[in-house]
Amino acid sequence: MEDLEALLSKVAEACFTVEQVEKVGFAVRIVNDDAIRQLNREMRDIDRPTDVLSFPTVRFPAGKTARDCPKRLKREYDPYCGYIYLGDCVLNLDRARQQAEEYGHSVARELGYLTAHSAFHLMGYDHMNEEEKSVMRSMEEKAMQSVGLTREAEISYDLLFELACEAMEKAYSPYSGFKVGACILTEDGRTFKGCNYENASYGATICAERCASSCAIIEGARKFKAIAVVGSTADAWPCGICRQVLREFSDLDMPVIVGTYKKSYTVKTLGELLPNSLSPEDLGVTI
User: Fold this and answer.
1) DSSP letters along 102-131, please?
2) Would the pTM of this model clear 0.70, i.e. be above it?
Protein backbone atom coordinates (compact mmCIF):
# COMPACT_ATOMS: atom_id res chain seq x y z
CA MET A 1 0.00 0.00 0.00
CA GLU A 2 2.94 2.35 0.62
CA ASP A 3 4.01 1.96 -3.01
CA LEU A 4 0.47 2.71 -4.16
CA GLU A 5 0.31 5.80 -1.97
CA ALA A 6 3.56 7.05 -3.51
CA LEU A 7 2.25 6.39 -7.02
CA LEU A 8 -1.04 8.21 -6.46
CA SER A 9 0.81 11.14 -4.88
CA LYS A 10 3.05 11.28 -7.93
CA VAL A 11 0.04 11.27 -10.25
CA ALA A 12 -1.64 14.03 -8.25
CA GLU A 13 1.52 16.17 -8.36
CA ALA A 14 1.69 15.65 -12.13
CA CYS A 15 -1.89 16.90 -12.44
CA PHE A 16 -1.08 20.00 -10.40
CA THR A 17 1.96 20.66 -12.59
CA VAL A 18 -0.07 20.36 -15.79
CA GLU A 19 -2.70 22.72 -14.33
CA GLN A 20 0.10 25.07 -13.17
CA VAL A 21 -1.02 25.31 -9.55
CA GLU A 22 1.07 24.90 -6.40
CA LYS A 23 0.57 24.03 -2.72
CA VAL A 24 -2.69 22.21 -3.39
CA GLY A 25 -3.86 18.73 -2.46
CA PHE A 26 -6.81 16.45 -1.87
CA ALA A 27 -7.71 13.39 0.16
CA VAL A 28 -7.91 9.93 -1.42
CA ARG A 29 -10.00 7.11 0.00
CA ILE A 30 -10.02 3.59 -1.50
CA VAL A 31 -13.23 1.60 -1.02
CA ASN A 32 -15.14 -1.35 -2.52
CA ASP A 33 -18.29 -1.62 -4.65
CA ASP A 34 -20.68 -1.58 -1.69
CA ALA A 35 -19.14 1.46 -0.03
CA ILE A 36 -19.03 3.58 -3.16
CA ARG A 37 -22.58 2.57 -4.06
CA GLN A 38 -23.74 3.82 -0.67
CA LEU A 39 -21.87 7.11 -1.16
CA ASN A 40 -23.27 7.49 -4.67
CA ARG A 41 -26.78 6.94 -3.34
CA GLU A 42 -26.41 9.32 -0.40
CA MET A 43 -24.57 12.13 -2.19
CA ARG A 44 -25.90 11.91 -5.75
CA ASP A 45 -29.13 9.92 -5.41
CA ILE A 46 -27.71 7.31 -7.84
CA ASP A 47 -28.11 3.78 -6.50
CA ARG A 48 -25.26 1.98 -8.24
CA PRO A 49 -21.49 1.60 -7.88
CA THR A 50 -19.08 3.63 -9.98
CA ASP A 51 -15.31 3.72 -10.43
CA VAL A 52 -14.54 7.08 -8.82
CA LEU A 53 -16.32 9.91 -7.04
CA SER A 54 -15.06 13.47 -6.58
CA PHE A 55 -16.26 15.93 -3.95
CA PRO A 56 -14.75 19.40 -4.55
CA THR A 57 -14.46 22.07 -1.88
CA VAL A 58 -13.79 24.84 -4.41
CA ARG A 59 -16.52 26.05 -6.78
CA PHE A 60 -15.10 27.60 -9.92
CA PRO A 61 -17.01 29.98 -12.23
CA ALA A 62 -18.32 28.47 -15.47
CA GLY A 63 -15.52 28.02 -17.98
CA LYS A 64 -12.81 28.57 -15.34
CA THR A 65 -10.45 26.08 -13.70
CA ALA A 66 -8.01 26.22 -10.80
CA ARG A 67 -5.27 27.99 -12.74
CA ASP A 68 -7.68 30.84 -13.52
CA CYS A 69 -8.76 31.43 -9.91
CA PRO A 70 -5.73 31.95 -7.60
CA LYS A 71 -7.66 34.11 -5.11
CA ARG A 72 -10.46 31.59 -4.84
CA LEU A 73 -7.90 28.84 -4.26
CA LYS A 74 -6.14 30.76 -1.49
CA ARG A 75 -9.39 30.99 0.46
CA GLU A 76 -9.36 27.19 0.73
CA TYR A 77 -5.93 27.01 2.38
CA ASP A 78 -6.08 24.53 5.25
CA PRO A 79 -3.47 25.30 7.94
CA TYR A 80 -3.90 21.83 9.42
CA CYS A 81 -3.03 20.14 6.11
CA GLY A 82 -0.55 22.81 5.10
CA TYR A 83 -1.96 23.18 1.59
CA ILE A 84 -5.01 24.36 -0.35
CA TYR A 85 -7.57 21.63 0.14
CA LEU A 86 -9.32 20.84 -3.17
CA GLY A 87 -11.66 18.14 -1.85
CA ASP A 88 -12.01 14.38 -1.69
CA CYS A 89 -11.42 11.56 -4.17
CA VAL A 90 -13.01 8.14 -3.59
CA LEU A 91 -11.60 5.23 -5.62
CA ASN A 92 -13.39 1.92 -6.10
CA LEU A 93 -10.79 -0.85 -5.94
CA ASP A 94 -13.27 -3.50 -7.18
CA ARG A 95 -14.07 -1.50 -10.30
CA ALA A 96 -10.41 -0.59 -10.85
CA ARG A 97 -9.49 -4.29 -10.90
CA GLN A 98 -12.29 -5.06 -13.34
CA GLN A 99 -11.42 -2.20 -15.69
CA ALA A 100 -7.70 -2.96 -15.54
CA GLU A 101 -8.45 -6.49 -16.75
CA GLU A 102 -10.73 -5.20 -19.50
CA TYR A 103 -8.16 -2.69 -20.77
CA GLY A 104 -5.18 -5.01 -20.39
CA HIS A 105 -3.09 -2.97 -17.99
CA SER A 106 -2.19 -3.00 -14.29
CA VAL A 107 -4.48 -2.14 -11.40
CA ALA A 108 -1.95 0.51 -10.37
CA ARG A 109 -2.26 2.19 -13.75
CA GLU A 110 -6.05 2.14 -13.55
CA LEU A 111 -6.01 3.63 -10.05
CA GLY A 112 -3.53 6.23 -11.31
CA TYR A 113 -5.85 7.19 -14.15
CA LEU A 114 -8.88 7.40 -11.86
CA THR A 115 -6.89 9.62 -9.49
CA ALA A 116 -5.96 11.93 -12.38
CA HIS A 117 -9.58 11.99 -13.54
CA SER A 118 -10.72 12.99 -10.06
CA ALA A 119 -7.95 15.57 -9.67
CA PHE A 120 -9.08 17.45 -12.75
CA HIS A 121 -12.70 17.30 -11.60
CA LEU A 122 -11.57 18.86 -8.31
CA MET A 123 -9.79 21.59 -10.30
CA GLY A 124 -12.91 22.54 -12.23
CA TYR A 125 -12.89 20.29 -15.31
CA ASP A 126 -15.91 18.33 -16.51
CA HIS A 127 -17.07 16.21 -19.44
CA MET A 128 -20.71 17.13 -19.92
CA ASN A 129 -20.20 17.71 -23.66
CA GLU A 130 -17.65 16.63 -26.28
CA GLU A 131 -15.62 19.84 -26.09
CA GLU A 132 -15.26 19.63 -22.31
CA LYS A 133 -14.49 15.94 -22.55
CA SER A 134 -11.73 16.55 -25.10
CA VAL A 135 -10.09 19.25 -22.98
CA MET A 136 -10.24 17.19 -19.80
CA ARG A 137 -8.95 14.07 -21.54
CA SER A 138 -6.00 16.02 -22.95
CA MET A 139 -5.05 17.20 -19.47
CA GLU A 140 -5.32 13.67 -18.09
CA GLU A 141 -3.09 12.32 -20.86
CA LYS A 142 -0.40 14.91 -20.21
CA ALA A 143 -0.33 14.11 -16.50
CA MET A 144 -0.38 10.34 -17.01
CA GLN A 145 2.32 10.43 -19.64
CA SER A 146 4.60 12.57 -17.49
CA VAL A 147 4.70 9.77 -14.89
CA GLY A 148 4.95 6.93 -17.43
CA LEU A 149 1.42 5.57 -16.97
CA THR A 150 0.05 6.17 -20.45
CA ARG A 151 -0.64 3.13 -22.58
CA GLU A 152 1.56 2.96 -25.67
CA ALA A 153 -1.52 2.97 -27.90
CA GLU A 154 -2.47 6.37 -26.48
CA ILE A 155 0.89 7.98 -27.16
CA SER A 156 0.59 9.95 -30.37
CA TYR A 157 2.81 12.20 -32.44
CA ASP A 158 0.24 14.94 -31.87
CA LEU A 159 0.62 14.71 -28.09
CA LEU A 160 4.44 14.72 -28.21
CA PHE A 161 4.31 17.70 -30.56
CA GLU A 162 1.98 19.54 -28.19
CA LEU A 163 4.29 18.86 -25.25
CA ALA A 164 7.25 20.15 -27.27
CA CYS A 165 5.25 23.32 -28.00
CA GLU A 166 4.75 23.78 -24.26
CA ALA A 167 8.48 23.33 -23.66
CA MET A 168 9.28 25.89 -26.37
CA GLU A 169 7.37 28.54 -24.45
CA LYS A 170 10.01 28.28 -21.68
CA ALA A 171 12.99 28.81 -24.01
CA TYR A 172 15.64 31.43 -23.26
CA SER A 173 16.82 32.92 -26.55
CA PRO A 174 17.60 36.64 -26.13
CA TYR A 175 20.29 36.62 -28.82
CA SER A 176 18.77 34.75 -31.76
CA GLY A 177 15.13 35.22 -30.82
CA PHE A 178 14.53 31.67 -32.09
CA LYS A 179 12.89 29.49 -29.46
CA VAL A 180 13.01 25.70 -29.60
CA GLY A 181 11.23 23.09 -27.51
CA ALA A 182 11.62 19.31 -27.42
CA CYS A 183 9.87 16.38 -25.82
CA ILE A 184 11.37 12.89 -25.56
CA LEU A 185 9.32 9.73 -25.08
CA THR A 186 11.27 7.01 -23.28
CA GLU A 187 10.92 3.25 -23.49
CA ASP A 188 9.07 3.07 -20.17
CA GLY A 189 6.44 5.57 -21.33
CA ARG A 190 7.68 8.70 -19.57
CA THR A 191 8.09 12.04 -21.30
CA PHE A 192 10.80 14.64 -20.71
CA LYS A 193 10.70 18.20 -21.99
CA GLY A 194 13.53 20.58 -22.75
CA CYS A 195 14.10 23.98 -24.34
CA ASN A 196 17.04 25.83 -25.82
CA TYR A 197 18.85 28.26 -23.58
CA GLU A 198 21.39 30.62 -25.10
CA ASN A 199 24.52 32.17 -23.65
CA ALA A 200 26.49 35.34 -24.30
CA SER A 201 29.30 32.97 -25.24
CA TYR A 202 27.49 31.32 -28.15
CA GLY A 203 29.36 28.05 -27.81
CA ALA A 204 27.84 27.54 -24.36
CA THR A 205 24.30 27.52 -25.78
CA ILE A 206 22.36 24.29 -25.16
CA CYS A 207 19.88 22.94 -27.70
CA ALA A 208 16.40 21.83 -26.68
CA GLU A 209 17.11 18.22 -27.66
CA ARG A 210 20.12 17.98 -25.36
CA CYS A 211 18.24 19.74 -22.58
CA ALA A 212 15.44 17.15 -22.82
CA SER A 213 18.01 14.34 -23.03
CA SER A 214 19.71 15.54 -19.85
CA CYS A 215 16.37 15.64 -18.02
CA ALA A 216 15.70 12.05 -19.11
CA ILE A 217 19.16 10.77 -18.20
CA ILE A 218 19.13 12.27 -14.70
CA GLU A 219 15.88 10.36 -14.06
CA GLY A 220 17.45 7.07 -15.10
CA ALA A 221 16.08 6.77 -18.65
CA ARG A 222 18.42 5.04 -21.07
CA LYS A 223 16.24 4.29 -24.09
CA PHE A 224 14.43 6.89 -26.18
CA LYS A 225 11.47 5.86 -28.35
CA ALA A 226 10.56 9.18 -30.03
CA ILE A 227 11.29 12.89 -29.93
CA ALA A 228 9.34 15.95 -31.05
CA VAL A 229 11.18 19.21 -31.77
CA VAL A 230 9.41 22.54 -32.31
CA GLY A 231 10.76 25.87 -33.57
CA SER A 232 9.05 29.17 -32.84
CA THR A 233 8.99 30.51 -36.41
CA ALA A 234 10.34 27.63 -38.52
CA ASP A 235 11.03 23.91 -38.32
CA ALA A 236 13.95 23.19 -35.98
CA TRP A 237 15.81 20.13 -37.26
CA PRO A 238 18.35 18.76 -34.75
CA CYS A 239 21.94 19.85 -35.24
CA GLY A 240 24.71 17.30 -35.79
CA ILE A 241 25.69 17.13 -32.12
CA CYS A 242 22.08 16.61 -31.04
CA ARG A 243 21.61 13.85 -33.60
CA GLN A 244 24.64 12.04 -32.21
CA VAL A 245 23.45 12.53 -28.62
CA LEU A 246 20.07 11.05 -29.55
CA ARG A 247 21.80 8.13 -31.28
CA GLU A 248 23.50 7.21 -28.01
CA PHE A 249 20.12 6.32 -26.52
CA SER A 250 17.98 5.53 -29.57
CA ASP A 251 17.60 3.03 -32.37
CA LEU A 252 17.89 4.27 -35.94
CA ASP A 253 14.16 3.76 -36.53
CA MET A 254 13.23 6.21 -33.75
CA PRO A 255 10.71 8.78 -35.04
CA VAL A 256 11.92 12.39 -35.04
CA ILE A 257 8.92 14.72 -35.21
CA VAL A 258 9.85 18.24 -36.34
CA GLY A 259 7.61 21.24 -36.94
CA THR A 260 6.79 24.87 -36.27
CA TYR A 261 4.94 26.07 -33.18
CA LYS A 262 1.21 25.29 -33.36
CA LYS A 263 1.51 24.35 -37.04
CA SER A 264 2.16 21.11 -38.94
CA TYR A 265 5.07 18.72 -38.51
CA THR A 266 7.14 16.21 -40.48
CA VAL A 267 8.27 12.80 -39.25
CA LYS A 268 11.58 11.20 -40.20
CA THR A 269 13.61 8.45 -38.58
CA LEU A 270 16.86 9.11 -36.78
CA GLY A 271 18.52 6.88 -39.36
CA GLU A 272 17.43 9.25 -42.12
CA LEU A 273 18.92 12.18 -40.24
CA LEU A 274 22.13 10.39 -39.22
CA PRO A 275 23.14 7.74 -41.78
CA ASN A 276 26.24 5.63 -41.15
CA SER A 277 26.17 6.73 -37.52
CA LEU A 278 28.48 5.81 -34.67
CA SER A 279 26.59 3.95 -31.95
CA PRO A 280 27.54 2.53 -28.53
CA GLU A 281 27.30 -0.95 -30.06
CA ASP A 282 30.06 -0.03 -32.51
CA LEU A 283 32.33 0.36 -29.49
CA GLY A 284 31.11 -2.80 -27.79
CA VAL A 285 28.81 -1.04 -25.33
CA THR A 286 25.21 -2.13 -24.76
CA ILE A 287 22.78 0.48 -23.44
Assistant:
1) HHTS-HHHHHHHHHHHHHHHHTT---SSHH
2) no
